[in-house]
Design a protein that fits this description.
three-stranded parallel beta sheet; mainly alpha; elongated
């Protein structure tokens, strides 16, 4: 079990939102795209710090979506499944990525297009691939007694 002592990306997400949204509110226009993950939708044994940090980003984005919408500011949360980048190598999670089905893997281009489309349409949250959206819906509605052991096995 490993817990990061401090993740600058988690702190910077809040700091940037706090610094950049008040001028947008004053102008009565603007847009913010938070990049989170499907992992932020439910607890994930063997991936706990990551899923918890993404849950915080998702919650912040969804809350600000509601708070800032009346002021002309669009806030959307991009929550992809696996994205084909070098992230798993940097995070030393290549063994976990290898277990993910390829049809659930989005490209960076697919993610960026989905995120920008969500901002343009004023959507609160977007999961790029239709199959990933279906998987996210199912896992969010599974009882924790089923999800937690299944997730633990998937990510071991």
């Amino acid at each position: 079990l490993s817990f990061p002592t401090r993740r600058s990306s988690d702190l910077s997400t809040v700091a940037l939102a706090r610094a950049l949204t008040p001028p947008m509110v004053a102008r009565r226009r603007g847009a913010v795209l938070f990049v989170s993950s499907m992992a932020g939708n439910q607890p994930m044994p063997n991936f706990a710090p990551y899923s918890a940090s993404k849950a915080a980003v998702t919650s912040l984005g969804e809350s600000l979506h509601c708070e800032l919408k009346p002021h002309g500011v669009t806030v959307s949360v991009l929550a992809p499944s696996v994205v084909d980048t070098e992230w798993s190598g940097v995070a030393e999670a290549t063994h976990q990525e290898a277990k993910q089905p390829k049809f659930m893997t989005a490209t960076a281009a697919q993610c960026s297009r989905s995120g920008l489309r969500a901002l343009d349409r004023g959507k609160r949250i977007v999961v790029p691939l239709p199959q990933a959206r279906a998987f996210a819906w199912v896992t969010q509605h599974l009882p924790r007694t089923i999800w937690l052991p299944a997730c633990r096995k998937m990510l071991t």
